[in-house]
Structures are given as structure tokens and as C-alpha cells.
Amino acid sequence: MTHIAAEALLxxxxxxxxxxxxxxxxxxxxxxxxxxxxxxxGSTVSECLLAASGIDPACEESWYAxxxxxxxxxxxxxxxxxxxxxxxxxxxxxxxAANYYRTxxxxxxxxxxxxxxxxxxxxxxxxxxxxxxTPAGEVVEIAWGNDSTLQGYFLPPAGRAGRxxxxxxxxGGPDQYKEEYLCRMPRYAHERGMALLLIDLxxxxxxxxxxxxxxxxxxxxxxxxxxxxxxxxxxxxxxKIVILGDGLGAxxxxxxxxxxxxxxxAVCDAGIWDLHERAFLASRIYGAEPISDEFGDxxxxxxGSSIATxxxxxxxxxxxxxxxxxxxxxxxxxxxxxxxxHDVELKVFSAAETAASHxxxxxxxxxxxxxxxxxxxxLARAR
Length: 383
Hints:
Blueprint: E1 12-14, E2 17-19, H1 25-37, H2 45-53, H3 60-83, H4 87-104, H5 113-132, E3 138-144, E4 148-155, E5 165-171, H6 186-190, E6 195-199, H7 216-230, E7 236-245, H8 250-259, E8 265-267, H9 272-286, H10 293-301, E9 315-320, H11 327-339, E10 344-349, H12 364-381
Parallel strand pairs: 5-6, 5-7, 7-8, 8-9, 9-10
Antiparallel strand pairs: 1-2, 3-4, 4-6
Helix pairs in contact: 3-4, 4-5, 7-8, 9-10, 10-11
């Protein structure tokens, strides 16, 4: 009889954090995101482990089948609970179902009809959650292009009727959907009396990959369009609008804040990603290695011309110790911005406290507590 050491059955830890399938980083990072979402109701640990037990990391079909099965089960439970008048249970199940549908289609091509079906189900569950919450959230839109629109979700806090409230605008990256923030962000905003606006940008959301642009200037224009929208809302305190960029949305938040002075604060990357891109191009020209001290010096040297120098509001740069960006380079860039008179704060989450992976996926709770406390402090100081 063959004996397998217990250690062989456990996930491994390396510089990227917890790897459920060490040979498949993409699957492992998605799984890490799902486990992190459990803390705020976007999944349950037991369901995640059950799905993982049926996944062959060499078979994309098994990935889709297991998460689709979990999503369908939660959607059904939510619908039954709603029919029986058990709204809190319905909300919990719809929230998990939306996250599982989003996960099921993560590795599908846009020509696979099942991807579109999963995205439609994700949006259906998300909007059921919005409509049945107290207070109810709204599906909102702004005009975009000649005959198109961009969609967002507006979630007001409870107990603030008749009062103008601050709003945090949440921006995700090209690989993210606004729906996945329904479990991650509202609690932290609402507990601090803030409304939340989750937005799509050009090339994001359900239209991604179908001819929508994702260029440099349409992003800034679309973000400003969303601020125009907020300024038409009677319940919004237009002097206390914050932009929060999550993951690869952090560079987009920097770009939005650098072109629009109406933000009271920005949680962003302070232009670091843009500087790395520019330094990388320079290294290709001058022959510096992207991991060398010379490359790092080039990143810092470029800080004087960073797009972040145009940002007028306070900035927070949250970074995981195990993130893709080098923490030392980021610290030097933030110090250079601060020396230039900019209000910028860097928070590095260490591996010892968790929240150290990219976008703090391994422990978003700790990150969101810090981020929303920082936002609350900055808004309290704002005149």
C-alpha cells in the first residue's frame, strides 16, 4: 500500500502567498480571492474547499463545472428564501452565487457562450441583492459614446435619509467586475456613513472584449463623467467624493484623480505603475535589467514627471509586501512625491499580518479596515 505524506496534500506557501495548486498560479490566485471573500459573505470556506476538491488544475472544464454547480445551488436557495419571505437568507445566497458565477467564467474565451450566460447570471444575482437590500441600492447609468452607456451600482448607507453623504467611487482593473465588490466594500463604507458607487469603465464589465475601448483618455473622461453624475444627486456631498482603485484599478484611480480636481481623497498607486512602464521602456533602450538597482533608480528619477504630481487631494497607496511591485521602489517614489509637497501616505501590509498579496486578496478585511479608516480621517479634515 502506498503511503502519501500529509504535507503533500496541503497547499504550499511561497513568495506569492498561499498556492492551492502550486503548478497553476492563475487558479490558485482566483481561489485565494474567493477564500478572502468569505470574511465578508462572498463565499463560504466549506463551499470553496468542496469545489476545489473536484477541480483538476489541468482541466478548465472542471473549474467551470465546480463553480457553476456552487453558483446554481446558492442562486436556487436564494430564490426559495425570497419566495418564503426570508430576505436576509436570500441576500446572503445571491451574494455568494454572484461571486461563484464570476469565478466560473474566469478562464473562458469571449467566444464561449457559457461565459456570457455566467456573466448574465452574476449580474442577475447582484441586482436581486441590490433591489432587496435595506436601503435598496440602485442600478445607474451614464451616457457613453454615441449610443452606449456605462453601468454602475449606487449603494446608500442606512439612517442617512435627508442628509448629504460622502461617496466612495470604487474602480476595478480590466480583469475585474464591479459585481465582485458588492461583498467586499459596502460594509466598510456604510459603517462610516458613506455611500458607495461601483462603476464600469470603457472595456470593463459585461461589454468587455466586444469592441469597447480601454485607452488612456477614455478612462479619465469616463471617471469624470461619473463625478458629473454624482453631482446631480441631492443626497451626495459633492465636496466629499473619494476614488478608490482596487488591484489594477489603482493606476486608473491615479489617472482619474490626476485629471479631475473634484476628489477629496484618492486611494491609488500614486502613479507607480505608470512610472514602472516608463522605466521598463527606458531599460529596453539603455540596457538596464528590470530587477536591478539601476532600474529602481530610473523609476525614482521619473517621479518628478509622474502623473501623480497633478493630484491635489491626499493619496493613500496600499501595498502588499508580496505584491508585484517592489516595495522599496514604491517607498522611494512616495517619499519623492512627499518631498515635492504632495500629501501621500504609503501603507505596506506585511506577510506577518497577512493582506500581503496583490490587492490584499489573502485578507481584504484588514486592508479595507485600514483604507476606510484613512478615508474617514481625511474626510473629517476636509473643509
